[in-house]
What does this fold into?
Amino acid sequence: MLTVVTGAFQSGMAIVNDLNSGFLSKVLLTPSSRAAILLGRLATDLLVLIMQSAIIIGLALLLGLRIVTGVGGLLLIFVTLAFFGLAWSGLLLAVGLKTRKAETVSAVGNLLVFPLLFVSSALFPVSIMPAWARTVSDYNPLSYVSNVTRGLIQGGLGWSTFAYAYAVIGLMAILTFGATLYQFRKVVT
It folds into this structure.
């Protein structure tokens, strides 16, 4: 999951580079639809996130990780990580389109990622957290992704956990893509 979250930083950085180098302006001159240009950027991000996740999971498998849910569980892990990665990329793309500064994308990303990571179920069992941290973890999207991937690896994932996690990630994706689309429309006009 950490690979996906940090890999999404590249989305915001890449759009800033495209804006500042004039590449996006040149692409906008082509007869391609505006939606296709944005979807192309997102598809590139998705491919990078999946490849990064595949490398990390492959290394973990070589080091002895055993996925109890088998190949189906492994595929669902990739789908979950990709879905969350796209939602997170949408946020950083919107920041990059708004500010046009790589430093701001990095600062906002770090400002959000690390506090959310340390107050999620990804690194520590929720049972040892203080009460306030457990409350934050209950609403933290990183916890949902972590719980789903952990459940798919160890087994025992309930459908309610899976459905709730996908609902939260889906809501996050709608919000971040809405912000990205809004900012993209402002840039291309």
